[in-house]
Design a protein that fits this description.
By secondary structure, this protein is of the alpha+beta class. It is built from seven helices and 19 strands. It folds into two domains: 126 residues, D-amino Acid Aminotransferase, Chain A, domain 1 (2-Layer Sandwich), CATH 3.30.470; 121 residues, Beta Barrel (OB fold (Dihydrolipoamide Acetyltransferase, E2P)), CATH 2.40.50. Strand 12 and strand 13 form a beta hairpin.
Length: 310
Amino acid sequence: MSHETPASLEKDGWRALAFRRPDGVYLQSRAGRDVSTYFPDITQAVAEAVELGAVLDGELVVWEGDRTNFAHLQRRVTAGAQLPDIARRHPAHYVVFDLLSAPPGRPLLDRPLHERRALLAQLLAGAPAQLTVSPQTTDLDQAGEWLTTWTAAGIEGVVIKRLDGRYEPGRRGWQKVRSYRTTEAIIGGVTPSIDNPETLLLGRCDQQGRLRYTGRTSPLRPTQRAELSTLLTPLDPEGAHPWPRPLPAAWTGQLDRPKPLPYSPVLPTIVAEIDVDTAYEHHRWRHHVRYLRPRLDLTPADVPPANGQR
């Protein structure tokens, strides 16, 4: 990273564009959906602090204590009549990292990032705390410090962009660097089959010794599939498994594809070494984890408990 490629913090929230229009504020998700009604606190803050014609790009987050809480964001979608109370108890924040249009409607997509950032800082100079400009640095040491210190607050990593880069909708003109660490979990199931395990379903035991679902891996490499197919043991058809079949959609956290997940249960005896990021809530990793290797030297009793993140 150099003075031409600054880094900014990557939050654990929902990416959203905010359009300041004459009739109010329109919030649009990364998938193009209207999420304005779920964030009345943010639409009000933008309406009061931002001039007409501005278009902001940022991340919607909710803080709980000294770290972000992704579950509070998700809860707004299903809150219904309880939404005002949830918004009052767990207010959202909009962390803005780019300005796509300046008041009264001047397009900035072709302007370099450093110019868009300067205009953004001016625009939000007097904004309330709910509207914050994301920190940015060209200092490699500071970016490294963010990766090691801010991850405890739920920050997932840093994003690296070019200072002279233009904004290109639909294209990733930046690089994301996440903070990962290595840990262990128990293999409780696979998809689609033990003969060809494409992904692993992982778990950890709670204080009562019951295996709790904690996450799913990203697709395995062919060599990993071949190795695991010889190590995993299918569950006896009459045998009991602690997880329902198929796996409930709510367990996997896929709100955009809310379908139960069919899988093949296995005897929970094999320990997997994995790489995980900081998105860990309610004893589950929200993002897919990276499978590294089997730990045949460990037993399920050696794996950290379900209420831990080690």
